[in-house]
């Protein structure tokens, strides 16, 4: 017995042509999705903009001690040093001394000798100096702190 191949019908021929077209569409869709994923990953790891970097510390500039009038006929003798950012050679200390006087004037002895309050005052002074010096000063240190 011999087997003869049956001739293809019009419906069978159309079904055979659609299968490769669907496969090509699916392949193109997969390639596009992969390209988007790779492009997004490349942007995230290589090209995305980074935020402003933290300033690097530079030299420390010590200023002369000053006396500040406190409440109740008391005074505070305070010395400060400015932590400059890298690239800043020196800063005019008059702004820092003025800000220190404004920060501590009129406070009571109890307020300036309380460790928690003194840390808060120092933090506020450092924040004020960062604004005044526009990125040239990044911190402040007390070099002298005497009340009477």
From TrEMBL:
Signal peptide: none annotated. Keywords: Cell membrane, Cell projection, Chemotaxis, Cilium, Flagellar rotation, Flagellum, Membrane, Transmembrane, Transmembrane helix. It is a single-pass membrane protein. It is found in: Cell membrane. InterPro entries: FliL. One of its GO terms (cellular component) is bacterial-type flagellum basal body. The keyword ATP-binding does not apply. The chain crosses the membrane at residues 27-46. GO terms for biological process: bacterial-type flagellum-dependent swarming motility; chemotaxis. Pfam families: FliL. Belongs to the FliL family. Controls the rotational direction of flagella during chemotaxis. This is Flagellar protein FliL.
